[in-house]
Amino acid sequence: MADKIRVLIVDDIAETRENIRRLLQFERDMEVVGGARTGKEAITMARDTQPHVVIMDINMPDMDGITATEAVLKELPNTQIIILSVQNEPDYMRRAMLAGARDFLPKPPSADELVSTIRKVGQRALTQAAIAPSVQGPGAPVSASPAHGVHGKIIVVYSPRGGVGRTMVSTNLALALQTEDTPTIIVDAALQFGDVAACLNLQTRNSLIDLVDQVGELDTELVDRISVHHPSGLKVIAAPARPEQAEAVQGPQVSKVLRFLATMFHYVVVDTSSALNESTIGAIDSSDIVVLIGAPDLPTIKNLRIFFELSEALNLTPQKIVLIMNRMDKRYGISAEKVADLLKQPILAQIPLDDRVVPLSTNNGEPLILQDRTKPVARAILEMAQAIKTRLAEIAHSNQEEKKPAAVAKVR
Ligand SMILES: Nc1ncnc2c1ncn2[C@@H]1O[C@H](COP(=O)(O)OP(=O)(O)OP(=O)(O)O)[C@@H](O)[C@H]1O
Ligand SMILES: [Mg+2]
């Protein structure tokens, strides 16, 4: 599979970022890896996401796009920067060219122009990366075969209610994230009746218990032996075959296993049960982000509210929780806006109810994301995956910002 062109969007106006993202979301050779609001944010996000192409606005609050262009290129010389500018800014254009920008587009750009310009300069970046991969810096995409030393992200898919679609979302999300550049593993931490392997039409006697049992001696070879390989390239750690095998599992052991997997894989997606038991809490403890699944019915909404109340005790900041509404349908009489209002929480993405496509794919062990990607459910999952990636980049950025004052304090 050819590499995708990784695109970072930099603009202080959320609507502009969203419009560009929307224009690009169905381009199969492109992937939006983040959206930065300021020049400074652009520099850290570029460092984190290693884009091939940056779409850069000029006028931004803290640092203008030209200074940001210079700074990004200093660290990532292969990155191609496209400047978005309002007409009649010849001076800006000249300065942007001197700073190393590759191309210019009027603001707002037309869909055709935007896509063709990104493709043109993106191809150049891909070729340069292939010739001199080391120039991409320390965070460069990891190789196809997982290697120790990656700083992967742990994505825990949870819901305080059974049957809302955790497994459907986690398996399809993992498949959406899995690429040659971003090797991904899904871990079934619904230890008692987990069904991730079944949903992916895989069989194995191995399970997460085998890793938990050897938590002091984890190594890449052991993980390779215990995981099952899906034809897509996704790796899978299954739940044990019998529920009683889960009994002795301790939360910290699960955290440790997941953190180890994050040194091997770009993304570690974790499916859970609805119980806040040892394995769920262990998973949440180690998470970079919790994808909370809701459905438009009152018992689920009530449980979500309780979960949000508990979130602080679980050490979860609001930024670390993203709410996804699944099984959305007008006939239920509860809209996403209503749920957001009831919970006083924003909804990151919505997945529609589809009583034909989804159960069929579950029952056949053929994830819907690997079938027709133009179907509304598949499209919603792709949009959700994108929004989760963006949130992860934002969290990484906030973490870095948080560390800064501490570092200064130390020097003093
Ligand atoms: N958007 C949807 N539209 C229609 N059916 C759906 C949708 N999402 C999930 N389902 C169906 O609902 C059922 C439960 O989904 P799933 O197993 O993913 O939920 P879960 O939260 O993991 O449940 P459990 O509590 O058993 O772990 C499955 O049959 C699945 O096909
Ligand atoms: Mg499940």
- Described by the principal axes of the CA atoms, the overall outline is globular
Rg on CA atoms, Å: 22 Å
SS field, number of helical segments = 15
Count of the separate structural domains: 2
The side-by-side strand order for the widest beta sheet comes to 8-9-7-10-6-11-12-13
* Secondary structural class: alpha/beta
Tell me the helix content.
Answer: 40-55%
The CATH homologous superfamily of the largest domain = P-loop containing nucleotide triphosphate hydrolases
Q: In CATH terms, what is the fold-level topology of the largest domain?
A: Rossmann fold
Low-confidence stretches: 132-146
Please explain how this structure is put together.
The chain is α/β, with parallel strands linked by helices and 412 residues long. The chain has two domains: 132 residues, 3-Layer(aba) Sandwich (Rossmann fold), CATH 3.40.50.2300; 234 residues, P-loop containing nucleotide triphosphate hydrolases (Rossmann fold, 3-Layer(aba) Sandwich). Helix content is 43%, strand content 17%. The protein has 15 helices and 13 strands. An eight-stranded mixed sheet has the order 8-9-7-10-6-11-12-13, sandwiched between helices. It has a five-stranded parallel sheet with strand order 2-1-3-4-5, with helices on both faces. The structure holds adenosine-5'-triphosphate (ATP) and magnesium ion (MG). The site of magnesium ion has 4 residues, from α6. Adenosine-5'-triphosphate binds next to α6, β12 and α14.
